[in-house]
Write a structure and sequence with these properties.
The complex is a heterodimer of chains A (about 850) and B (about 400).
Chain A (H helix, E strand, L loop, with lengths): L5 H6 L5 H17 L1 H13 L5 H13 L6 H12 L3 H14 L5 H18 L8 H10 L5 H17 L7 H14 L7 H14 L4 H5 L1 H14 L5 H17 L8 H14 L2 H27 L11 H17 L15 H16 L4 H12 L4 H13 L6 H21 L2 H18 E2 L4 E2 L6 H11 L4 H17 L7 H19 L7 H17 L2 H22 L7 H26 L4 H8 L2 H13 L7 H14 L7 H12 L5 H18 L4 H16 L8 H15 L7 H16 L6 H24 L12 H13 L5 H18 L4 H5 L2 H11 L4 H18 L2
Antiparallel strand pairs in A: 1-2
Helix pairs in contact in A: 2-3, 3-4, 3-6, 4-7, 6-7, 7-9, 8-9, 8-10, 9-11, 10-11, 11-14, 14-16, 15-16, 15-17, 16-18, 17-18, 18-20, 19-20, 20-22, 21-22, 21-23, 22-24, 23-24, 23-25, 24-25, 24-26, 25-26, 25-27, 26-28, 27-28, 28-31, 30-31, 31-33, 33-35, 34-35, 35-37, 36-37, 36-38, 37-39, 39-42, ...
Chain B lengths: L16 H31 L22 H4 L4 H11 L1 E5 L7 H4 E7 L2 E8 L2 E6 L4 E5 L18 E9 L4 E10 L2 E2 L5 H14 L13 E4 L3 E2 L2 H9 L6 E8 L7 E9 L22 E6 L4 E3 L7 E4 L2 H7 L6 E14 L2 E12 L10 H11 L5 H23 L1
Parallel strand pairs in B: 1-12, 7-9
Antiparallel strand pairs in B: 2-10, 2-11, 3-4, 3-6, 4-5, 6-7, 7-8, 11-12, 13-14, 13-16, 14-15, 16-17
Helix pairs in contact in B: 1-3
The chains are: A mainly alpha (about 850), B alpha+beta (about 400).
Family (chain B): Belongs to the snurportin family.
Subcellular location (chain B): Cytoplasm; Nucleus
Protein name (chain B): Snurportin-1
């Protein structure tokens, strides 16, 4: 039965915290004691036009939150909870909600539409609410429906389409929805509110309209209505109509040919003359077309030209009109908005679209853009200079390196001058353009670069001067340095060209990271990220001394963060950010140095390991409940670098390892910690034994947890392999727990829906990791106690057979499969004779592997064949 | 208005360095795991005896174990690597009596002080591995395919040299050649190997001073016929390195991995700083110490093949001390010393000291123990070698005369 809860809902919004808390606790109590009655009471409250809007609104929100949540686990729990509610209550609640759609109060109708969609998202896929769509459509057709009811009904239809998949509705339902929606857009028959709701509903329903778009008559009718709506006198409706067009551009690209002329005129007028909100959507239409054509081109080139989808070359055909239109938008910059991430304006959208057009048509864009660049770059007006620079920067990806290199050679000096003399906006864009030049035209390892020993000194000089500029410019310069350094990665003798500058560059980046004249977190992190790239890409033989000197500087800085005065949560966040950056630098240094060939370089870390670890542990200690992700990553690198010496840190580090493994909320942290467990056990080998009980317990608990993001589970199986290889026969006691988990996961793989691409991708990772786990455990028992694994061989064999039967396997999985077969034969020997003896599939599979182009795979298959032969002949 | 997520990268570099670091970490972890598994698998193949050819085999199969070469072995790790590399280097026995016909059948060369290692050049890099399998250096060199600088120099190949790394001048002194550009010299006589080594090395710039693509200099150890002049040169001649004894190689012997009496090492205080073994503190212990391997049945033996049994431990003692077969144990030789009857060890007065240092891979050889024992009492002196050569000359004369007749 519904209860009177108005007073609690109002009190829960009281300014008085005591009153509020008490009301909230009353509501919670009610919810816990009798959920169905509670939900019903909320819907009754929402439906009751005599109640104050405040309590009705909150009733709707609480109801919505009882049905849906952001995180998947809670969402699933709430859905289950709703399903368990008695059908009589559910019917009443739904009735209340549908009733509310006719309310004269806008907010009540709107809230009800949202709640209805949430209920639909649970009930429709489970076929628990087949009458909903018909009921809503009836609202649209019955004679006495008010405009309010039509508006909220269309809104509900839109939300429902957003929530469910098009598999959940029958084609006749889809047809009726589209008819209702398109009729709702009709200018002559409907109020602006209804038309807006209809246009927004169409946006959500487009995905359902696949069949209708294949039918020329229906398609043309829908397109006609959308185009007409795009000319409405109400801005909001025009904007919604252009959003529909942008969405149609990507969803129904292949049937657009007939409408392109009209669409070009429509969008072109909007870009030139309409208000910004509409113009942005018009540009988005062209960006979407570019996205489609770029994808078609990439797909085609990868797949011998036979893609099955026609490439209509819309961009190429309209290029000579499109490009000038976009260039014009570049001149409409706003001042001082570049630094705000939440800003998106017409010049930004135009620049972005221009970049996409360049990627679509390549060289053909150059003759259209270069005259604009040349005409504007030397103008005194900063808007012209900036637009010219942005235009040039935008087209650097797409055209050929040859053509672009010529242009860069003649223009680089000018850009360097602009970087010194332009106004702030111009310098910002120029630094970005220079970074893009490095990104696309500086690849000594790839055999081309616009940077030579002739211009490098000047380039570095200007960059290092500009790093002292305003923080937005300095941050872009950091990025340009990042791209400059990146080009020298693995570039052999070319990288020696860069070496002489590295010392100064590092100095400047450190300076930028700790500038006292500005306090800009974006600059700070850009500077550290560039520093990382410079270290990562440097030639370690030539820079080991520089890195040796850099290490204590970073350690010093990290140590200073521990002494920061922490008063507010802001301080705390700042400290954590700084520590993250510095731990990141340390991770890069450790990894770089430990990859060196000579012991002398490697000793840079080995001799400092105590201090490094001491600092990491202190960074961990700065937080009480979570572990610092960056410090964790860096410790993995340290364990790898120090090897068995790492053992002395484990007693202090262990509790953070545990904490990381238990961090389900931030599953990235958990995942990284799993990786670090691998690093640690590999480093310590059997010395890790005393910690294994604890580690295995946590890993097993993680595997069986529903709350942990599934992406962490494959890495856990892989880490079983590391542990087993390290502690060898001591893994015996974990086998009865670990292997059944692997078996269950293997069974799960067998049951996955092959039509769900995302799930199959996950299944692939899972299979690889299960095979890896078996491989590690088997090889760990190679020298003793191999009989432990005998009882598990048949199940593994079944799993192998399952994967053998699969038509498509990626090379990673194929390799893991070939390897585990060999491991089985190698470790269990003649006991597996019966398994291998009569299996043609196995021989065929290995034959295929041997014919592969992948050397690793061939080698593994050769080995496996050898192992199997040796048991078959003995 | 906020940009759609799709278009957000506008003028904002889409770089998440953190994501990049995560990915690089993952890659490193994957590679390490892969290498670890590969190493185990390789060990199975390399350490198992080649499968016997089955007469019932329908078709002759190529012996797959020969598909694995030293490059694969360089991926072995830990005990497996030590085991494998121990089997690859030719290890000279210690000279406990002077072989006949020294001037006719033997070469002599001064042994540089330093770490004995295998140097493998292939795929644009050069790797030196010590006797226990651990990597000493990974570096670019002017050996064939020893650095990335020589892309154009013919098909991929690998070469293996037997060297001693001399710390003081950072030079690899080459004492023998095992493979050169894929051509195996295992089954060639010392005479042939030494001659070709000199020629092949001269074809490269390996003996040039270090440079960017050539990190360490290589140098040939001067060898000569073991006549009086040759012996004198090796023993007392000027060499650019610190000497640690003298090596003798039988001219006709093939390169035989493992211990061999066809290569010998000898030293005295004049030509080596390390004649008598020291303990971990660098002191010469009052009693000679030996390291022996414990067998299943309690016997303690040398690393020779077949092993020489020195003693047998009480099984109770083994259990109480928690020792397992395969352990390397350190013993002191007591005042009772070693009793030799008819050239064979009859009894050794062994006193258990403890288990040996973990880094150690092998028990001592018989010849080493005997040489050390003699060095403490009545060493084999340079005069004995000279005398042997002189008498051998006479012998040769006689032989010539006989042949003339």
């Amino acid at each position: 039965m519904a209860m009177e809860i108005t007073q609690y809902l109002l009190a829960a919004q009281s300014a008085d915290a005591r009153v509020r808390t008490e009301a909230e606790s009353n509501l919670r109590q009610f919810q816990e004691q009798n959920l169905p009655a509670f939900l019903l009471s909320l819907s009754v409250e929402l439906a009751n036009s005599e109640k104050p809007i405040e309590s009705r609104r909150l009733a709707g929100i609480v109801l919505k939150n009882s049905l849906d949540a952001k995180d998947a686990v809670t969402k699933e729990r709430l859905a289950q909870q709703w399903m368990a509610v008695d059908i009589a209550f559910k019917s009443q609640i739904k009735e209340m909600l549908l009733l509310t759609l006719a309310s004269s109060v806008r907010e009540a109708r709107h809230t009800s539409a949202q709640v209805l969609a949430k209920v639909a998202s649970i009930d429709i896929p489970r076929k628990q609410w087949p009458e909903l769509i018909a009921y809503l459509l009836n609202n649209m057709t019955k004679g006495d429906s008010s405009a309010d009811l039509k508006q909220s009904t269309l809104e509900t239809l839109g939300y429902v389409c957003e929530e469910i998949s098009h598999h959940d509705l029958g084609q006749d339902e889809v047809n009726s929805i589209l008819t209702a929606v398109v009729q709702g857009m009709n200018l002559a028959e409907n109020s602006p509110e209804v038309r807006l709701a209809a246009t927004k509903a169409l946006y959500n329903a487009l995905e359902f309209a696949e069949t209708n778009f294949q039918n020329e008559m229906e398609r043309t009718y829908i397109m006609k209505m959308v185009c007409e709506t795009a000319l409405s006198k109400e801005v909001e409706i025009r904007q919604a109509a252009f959003e529909c067009l942008a969405s149609i551009a990507s969803t129904y690209y292949d049937v657009l040919e007939a409408y392109m002329q009209a669409l070009f005129e429509l969008t072109s007028n909007a870009v030139k003359g309409d208000v910004e909100a509409v113009a942005l959507q018009a540009i988005e239409f062209w960006s979407s077309i570019c996205d489609e054509e770029i994808e078609l081109q990439e797909y085609e080139s990868a797949d011998t030209g036979d893609s099955g989808h026609p490439h209509s070359r819309f961009i190429e055909k309209s290029l000579s009109y499109l490009v000038p239109m976009l260039l014009e938008t570049l001149l409409k910059q706003e001042e001082d908005v570049d630094q705000d991430d939440s800003i998106w304006n017409i010049s930004m959208a135009g620049g972005t679209c221009l970049g996409l057009v360049a990627r679509t048509v390549g060289d053909a864009i150059l003759p259209l853009v270069m005259p604009f660049v040349e005409a504007n770059i030397a103008q005194p007006d900063w808007r012209c200079q900036e637009a010219a620079t942005l235009a040039f920067g935008s087209i650097l990806e797409g055209p050929t390196v040859e053509k672009l290199s010529v242009l860069v050679h003649s223009g680089l000096d000018f850009l360097l001058r602009l970087l010194k003399d332009g106004n702030n906006h111009v310098k910002d864009t120029t630094a970005w353009t220079i970074g893009r030049i490095f990104e696309y035209l500086h690849s000594p390892a790839g055999g081309f670069s616009v940077i030579s020993s002739d211009n490098l000194p000047k380039v570095v000089e200007v960059l290092l001067e500009s790093i002292k500029d305003a923080p937005n410019v300095a941050a872009k310069v950091c990025w340009a340095i990042y791209k400059l350094a990146e080009g020298y990665e693995d570039a052999g003798r070319h990288s020696s060209l860069f070496t002489p500058y590295i010392h100064r560059i590092i100095e400047s980046l450190l300076f930028a990271a700790s500038r006292t004249d500005v306090d800009d977190s974006r600059l700070r992190s850009a500077a550290y990220e560039s520093l990382n790239e410079v270290v990562r890409c440097s030639n370690i033989k030539e820079t080991s001394q520089i890195i040796r000197e850099l290490l204590p500087v970073i350690l010093q800085k990290l140590s200073q963060t521990l002494e920061l005065q922490i008063v507010s949560s802001d301080d705390k966040e700042k400290q954590a950010d700084l520590q993250a950056s510095l731990c990141g630098v340390l991770q890069v240094i450790i990894q770089k140095v430990s990859s060196a060939d000579d012991l002398e370089t490697r000793s840079i870390i080995l001799t400092q390991a105590d201090q490094i670890m001491f600092l990491f542990l202190n960074v961990f200690a700065c937080r009480s409940s979570t572990v610092h992700e960056e410090a964790m990553l860096a410790i993995g690198a340290l364990a790898h670098a120090t090897g068995s010496e790492f053992g002395k840190y484990l007693p202090d580090f262990y509790k953070y390892l545990e904490m990381g493994l238990q961090n389900f909320e931030e599953y990235q942290v958990c995942s990284i910690t799993v990786g670090v467990v691998g690093d640690v056990v590999r480093a310590l080998n059997d010395k890790v034994l005393p910690y294994c009980d604890g580690i295995m317990q946590l890993l097993l608990a993680n595997l069986s947890s529903e709350a942990l993001d599934r992406s962490v589970k494959p890495p856990i199986f892989s880490v079983f392999s590391d542990i087993a290889l390290s502690i060898e026969e001591n893994f015996e006691k974990y086998v009865p727990y670990a292997v059944p988990m692997m078996q269950r996961a293997a069974e799960l793989c067998a049951q996955m829906d092959p039509n769900d691409d995302e799930l199959m991708e996950y299944g692939n990772q899972l299979k690889c990791s299960i095979f890896e786990a078996y491989s590690g455990i088997l090889q760990g028992f190679k020298n003793s106690k191999s009989e432990v694994m005998l009882p598990y061989a048949p199940h593994l064999w079944q799993f192998i057979e399952l994967v053998l039967r699969e038509q498509h396997r990626d090379v990673q999985l194929t390799k893991a499969l070939a390897a585990v077969m060999g491991d089985l034969a190698d470790v269990l020997g003649t006991n597996t004779k019966a398994l291998f003896g009569d299996l043609k599939a196995c021989a065929n599979f290995l034959g295929e592997c041997l014919g592969s182009d992948d050397d690793d795979l061939k080698k593994t298959a050769t080995w496996t064949q050898d192992r199997i032969r040796s048991i078959l002949v003995s | 208005m906020a940009p759609s997520d799709l278009r957000r990268p506008y003028k904002r570099p889409q770089l998440s360095d953190q994501q990049r670091r995560r990915e690089l970490s993952l890659k490193r972890q994957e590679q390490s795991r892969d290498a670890e598994l590969q190493a185990r698998r390789l060990a199975s193949t390399l350490l198992s005896l080649p499968p016997e050819q089955q007469p019932s085999d329908p078709e002759p199969e190529p012996s797959s174990s020969t598909d694995y070469d030293l490059r694969d072995a360089s991926k072995l790790k830990g005990p497996a690597a030590r085991k494998w590399f121990a089997k690859q280097l030719m290890l000279p026995e210690w000279m406990i009596d002077v072989p006949h016909r020294l001037p006719h059948d033997w070469y002599v060369l001064p042994r540089p002080a330093g770490r004995r290692c295998f140097v493998v050049s292939s795929d644009g890099t050069t790797i030196s591995r010590q006797r226990n399998g651990t990597v000493l250096h990974r570096f670019p060199s002017a050996l064939p395919h020893g650095s990335r600088n020589r892309d154009g120099s013919g098909p991929p190949s690998y070469s293996i040299l037997d060297c001693i790394f001399h710390e003081m001048d950072q030079t690899y002194y080459v004492i023998d050649m095992v493979c050169w550009k894929n051509y195996s010299y295992y089954n060639c006589s010392t005479e042939f190997r030494f001659t070709w080594l000199k020629e092949k090395l001269a074809e490269t710039k390996a003996c040039d001073p270090p440079s960017y693509y050539h990190k360490y200099r290589f140098s040939l150890v001067p060898w000569s016929r073991c006549d009086l002049a040759g012996l004198h040169n090796a023993y007392a001649g000027e060499v650019p390195f610190i000497k640690d004894g003298i090596l003798f190689y039988n001219k006709h012997a093939h390169y035989q991995p493992g211990n061999t009496p066809l290569a010998l090492v000898w030293k005295d205080e004049h030509c080596s700083q390390y004649v008598i073994d020291t303990d971990s503190k660098g002191q010469v212990p009052s009693h000679q110490q030996v390291v022996l391997e414990l067998q299943d049945d309690g016997k303690v033996t040398t690393s020779d093949d077949p092993p020489v049994v020195f003693s047998c431990l009480n099984l109770d003692f083994i259990q109480q001390s928690g020792l397992q077969s395969g352990c390397l144990l350190r013993f002191a030789i007591g005042d009772g010393g070693l009793t030799i009857v008819d050239g064979k060890l009859e009894r050794a007065d062994l006193h258990y000291v403890g288990t040996s240092n973990r880094a150690r891979a092998f028990a001592d050889t018989y010849s080493k123990i005997m040489f050390q024992s003699m060095a403490r009492g009545s060493p084999l002196r340079i005069d004995d070698l000279v005398a042997s050569i002189s008498s051998s000359d006479d012998e040769a004369d006689t032989l010539d005369v006989e042949m003339a007749v």
